[in-house]
Automatic annotation (TrEMBL):
This is Uncharacterized protein.
């Protein structure tokens, strides 16, 4: 299980976002949990700090 951090804009991007922490197996599961809680059309950013810090090869 990994910890994912999200900012969700429930009332649109002009309003302050709500910070959310999710525990999920992968990004798809975290996305499904967010959409189940806030609706499929909610606006959000979602990331896993561990994955974001990994070195990428181009």
């Amino acid at each position: 299980m990994k910890t994912y951090h999200a900012i969700v804009w429930v009332d649109g991007p002009e309003q302050p976002g709500k910070r959310v922490v999710l525990i999920a197996e992968n990004l798809d599961e975290a996305r499904e949990k967010l959409e189940a809680e806030y609706g499929k059309n909610c606006e959000y950013t979602l990331k896993n700090e561990e994955d974001a810090a990994k070195r990428r090869l181009f």
